[in-house]
TrEMBL record:
It comes from Auxenochlorella protothecoides (Green microalga). This is protein-tyrosine-phosphatase. GO terms for molecular function: protein tyrosine phosphatase activity. It is an enzyme of class 3 (hydrolase). InterPro entries: LMW_PTPase, Ptyr_pPase, Ptyr_pPase_sf. It comes from the Eukaryota. Its EC number is 3.1.3.48. SMART domains: LMWPc. Transmembrane segments: none annotated. Residues 39-233 form the Phosphotyrosine protein phosphatase I domain.
């Protein structure tokens, strides 16, 4: 009977977002200062208290090492809300200290805000295809309610179109370059094996003990050199830049020319559907 038909897992739930240009307009009308000339890098993980917290600490040390602390800053955010307001995971703190890094004592997780963050950030670094999907799907303005994960569609399989102009933000503001700002952190790891772009969640399936410590150490061994590689990448771009605004512009042009990343593309956002 029709009354017994449950379609809750196969329908689309509309989700209303505040677009980046709305955030920019609100700031202007409110008399807020002009956007910072500093390049803002956002590190994104699911919880915001583990991988991204460690990445922010590693990157802060790396930009200081290359002398970019006056032109580049960073933040860590979560795609999910369950750890908002909490401090870093103990495993992340331990891994950081083992590498001479310190996560700030006042660190508190906050959730990724598609409109505000995409308006402010110059580069958004995700850890794996799941956080990439969360960020790019949120930035698309759609929340898809299909049960389970959607197929992971590669850019090559979609003839490079799956990650080019797929978001609503990009479709409306073609000069915004919103989706091109989203990159895998491990893309910047020196000598990273081809096709190896993900940094898996070390706490997934672990409940402490030696297994969790080993997984956290393995993740840190990818996060730290990736952050150092990112700092070196920015230092190269900064060469010849007379000010922070010039670095921001050069970074935007550079990432805009990079190939799109692979992510879990919802069916309605795929090319040709």
């Amino acid at each position: 009977a029709a009354d017994d038909l449950d379609v809750t897992s196969t329908v689309i739930s509309p989700s209303f977002r505040s677009a980046p240009w709305n955030q920019e307009a609100k700031a202007t009308l409110a008399g807020e200062p002009e956007p910072s000339s500093q390049t803002l890098v956002l590190f994104v993980s699911e919880s915001g208290v583990c991988r991204s917290a460690l990445a922010a600490a590693a990157f802060q040390a790396a930009i200081q090492a290359v002398g970019l602390e006056d032109r580049v800053r960073c933040q860590a955010v979560a795609t999910q809300s369950f750890n908002v307001g909490e401090g870093p995971e103990r495993a992340a703190v331990t891994a950081a200290r083992a590498r001479g890094l310190e996560i700030p004592p006042d660190f508190a997780a906050r959730q990724f805000d598609p409109g505000a963050d995409m308006a402010r950030c110059d580069l958004v670094l995700v850890m794996d295809k799941f956080t990439a999907s969360d960020v790019l799907r949120e930035a698309s303005g759609l929340a898809v309610g299909f049960g389970g994960l959607t197929p992971w569609v590669s850019a090559d399989a979609e003839q490079g179109r799956a990650n080019t102009g797929i978001t609503v933000f990009d479709s409306i503001d073609t000069e915004g370059r919103y989706s091109t700002r989203v990159r895998y952190l491990r893309q910047f790891q020196p000598d990273s094996p081809e096709g190896m772009t993900e940094i898996e969640d070390p706490l997934y399936g672990n409940t402490g003990g030696a297994g969790e410590a080993a997984a956290m150490s393995a993740a840190a061994s990818l996060i730290v050199p990736s952050c150092q590689g990112l700092a070196a990448f920015l230092a190269d771009l900064n060469a010849g830049c007379e000010d922070g605004a010039a670095l921001k512009a050069r970074l935007a042009e550079t990432v805009d020319g990079m190939q799109g990343i692979d992510w879990l593309v919802p069916p309605l956002l795929r090319a040709g559907t």
